Amino acid sequence: MGLTLFALLVALCGAIQTADAAVPAPVARALAAAGIPESAVGLYVHDVTAARPIVVHAAERAFNPASTMKLVTTYGALELLGPAYTWNTEIYMAGALESETLAGDLVIKGYGDPKLTFEDFWRVLRHLRGRGIREIRGDVILDRSHFAADDYDPAQFDEQPLRPYNTGPDALLVNFKVVTIDFVPDTSGHTVRLVAEPTLPTLQIVNNLLMDDVPCGDWVSRLKVEAEGGSEAARLIIGGAYSRDCGQRTRSFSLLGHRAYVAALFTQLWEDLGGTLTGTVRDGQLPPDARLILTTQSEALAEIVRDINKYSNNVMARQLFLTLGTLGGGAPGTLEKARATIRQWLTQKGIAMPELAIDNGAGLSRIERISAKNMGELLLAAFRSAVMPEFLASLPVVAADGTMRKRLPNAGVAGQAHIKTGTLSAVRAIAGYVLDARGRRVVVVFIVNHANAANAQAAQDALLDWVYQR
Fold first, then answer.
1. Rounded to 5, what percent of the chain is helix, strand, coil?
2. What pTM was computed for the model?
3. Over the stretch 382-432, which tens digit does the pLDDT of each residue have?
4. CATH of span 12-83+301-469
5. Helix or strand or coil: residue 433?
6. Phi and psi torsions of 174, nearest 5°
7. Which residues contact 215 (CB under 8 A, 6 or more apart)?
8. Homologous superfamily in CATH for domain 88-151+258-297
9. Alpha-carbon span 123 to 416, nearest angstrom
10. pLDDT tens column, 183-219
């Protein structure tokens, strides 16, 4: 009798597991309304304290995860580098300094800082002036050799080379290589002023904008933006119409090459600080006899991954990915070395991902692949990791911040889930953790690869709400 009862309980548990493993009804309805077949969806839901998942659907199929691939890169980096890891940018003198004059070259060596901002770079040059350097009777040498040089084409991914997210990585990345334009309407003169920051001597801004009185709406689509020139010097021509109703707006653009951008920025800021430069700003390698005079450090990795995941910063993710390459294979960092480092780390953790295809670590790729199950297993491992607090805190909070700021503001799950998003044409993905209504932490992965993926948000939000309330 006892065995019979036990057999019935086992059968009942199996039936419950099978029922739970199906696509939840509200999600299925939302997918149908969006015109997305369930065959185009990978689902994985797993309570972090349970032995078996709650929902498994096409979970072992390889999907393009878009920006949720950043979870692999950032979790790997937190474990391999440590949350307190920082990047240095070093300044050297190759020559004698006398009476505020450097008789030789100044060398700036980068090590891949993902977030060396305009303000940071200005402070570095200000410190140089404070060290007694005013005139440089030589060249400024930019040592960018910590990452391997490549022929990266910013137009290759989606033919939008001016968009900042298409900026390639560089060992001496400064200000994400962007120029930010403020659109400032002058209502009295019926014109729109364009205010650039930073102002660069090799970049000309041409203002052909017309002001009108139509509703603001999708203001960006009404702009006509053209770029002329090349990586060394360029003209940005902004035309089209701008509504008075829009008020002040901001748009960023990436035009010049990395060396040309840093050269123009150094030249402008150095002049503003009262310095002079006899030679040019050029690429080169650190001379063996150069003397270190100044080092600046980045924010800690825990802060860097927060920016990467909350705001899905592709450029910073690519910088971090190449840094992992230098960790595993030494400088210069390459994509191949970074991929090998990630695979070795996963192997050491006992996580088998035969389907994994990792291109640049940012998810801005058509060839990256991972299964919903293995993304979920990675999140389960992260929750048991010593770096869990930093990793979890880096993810957007539903209805609160980052890329999830505007989603589910009136639902019970608002403020109760940390979810990374991923968006490409024909791809929508979410992955992260839900703290459900009973206080249980649950891993959630939902990946859609389909022509109608842009309509998937309602289904993904339905899953988050279902997990919270179940």
1. 35, 25, 35
2. 0.94
3. 999 999 999 999 999 999 999 999 999 999 999 999 999 999 999 999 999
4. 3.40.710.10
5. strand
6. -125, 125
7. 243, 245
8. D-Ala-D-Ala carboxypeptidase C, peptidase S13 (3.50.80.20)
9. 39
10. 999 877 789 999 999 999 999 999 999 999 999 999 9
